[in-house]
Design brief:
The chain has seven helices and six strands, in the order βααβαβαβαβαβα. It is an alpha/beta fold.
Length: 197
């Protein structure tokens, strides 16, 4: 990177987006999965050590999926197949990056982390100005959340190696061409180093 990378833990938060068993198993190749989980686990450890807030975001539905509109093709498929039900092992956050008891978990029923959730309230109440994002998938929750957060005037950092998409070309295109104008796209080690400084 051409200029020094800084993070103020008191004004930043790490968002761990959709790191759920079912998504990791179905959308991230086995070899890549281990590296993605390891990088995110290192960022989580660094954030905890620096006392930077961590917010987990996951998609989950009530029994019967009453939150799903028949006009929503993606989530209608989820409803028809009984996916992402609350309390199910496949819906849970992967144990390698699981939250501690006092770390908030935001439950959503749409793609973006802000849509219909209390995420903005959590961030605003804690004076957060900078968001560091790690998420599955790049073309889903990461892209949608970056766009929403950019419109809310957050400084955005995306940890490239802690995002994944089943389409590797799309992953690179989104990070290099679509997300880069709105966020600093960095390696997770830059985040760890900045929090350790």
């Amino acid at each position: 990177m051409s200029e020094p990378f800084h993070l103020d833990p008191a004004k930043s938060a790490l968002l761990v987006l959709d790191y759920q068993n079912v998504l990791l198993e179905n959308y991230v190749a086995q070899a890549q999965r281990e590296a993605v989980l390891a990088g995110t686990a290192r960022m989580i450890a660094a954030a905890r050590a620096a006392r930077m807030p961590i917010v987990y975001v996951m998609v989950a539905f009530r029994t019967g999926h009453p939150e799903v509109s028949p006009r929503n093709a993606l989530f209608s498929f989820v409803k028809q197949n009984g996916l992402f039900l609350r309390g199910q092992p496949e819906t849970a956050i992967h144990p390698a990056v699981a939250p501690l008891h006092d770390e908030p978990v935001v439950i959503k029923q749409r793609i973006g982390a802000f849509s219909g959730t209390d995420l903005q309230t959590l961030l605003g109440s804690n004076g957060v100005e900078t968001l560091v994002l790690a998420g599955i998938t790049t073309g889903g929750v990461v892209l949608s959340t970056v766009r929403q957060a950019f419109d809310l005037d957050y400084r955005l950092v995306v940890a490239r190696d802690c995002c994944a998409d089943p389409d590797s070309e799309l992953h690179d295109l989104l990070l290099d061409k679509v997300i880069a104008p709105h966020a600093q796209v960095v390696h997770s080690q830059h985040v760890v180093d900045a929090l350790s400084a």
